[in-house]
Design goal:
3 helices; 26% strand; alpha+beta; two-stranded antiparallel ribbon; binds zinc ion
């Protein structure tokens, strides 16, 4: 299971219908709305990972 970065719900990556690749990483979403939100402002939702690099 992976986390939907938008609503933090668990998504089964094996049957996830909504996913997108950003920065070489695949993100999975519970629905089309979450995917759309992520694609509009991906940086807003992945800033946790940027912080780890610092
Ligand atoms: Zn979601």
């Amino acid at each position: 299971m992976v986390l939907d970065p938008i609503c933090l719900m668990e998504v089964d990556e094996k049957c996830a219908r909504f996913k997108t690749v950003y920065n070489g990483q695949t993100f999975y979403f519970c629905d089309k709305g979450c995917k759309q939100k992520f694609e509009e402002e991906p940086e807003k939702y992945i800033d946790i990972e940027e912080r780890e690099e610092k």
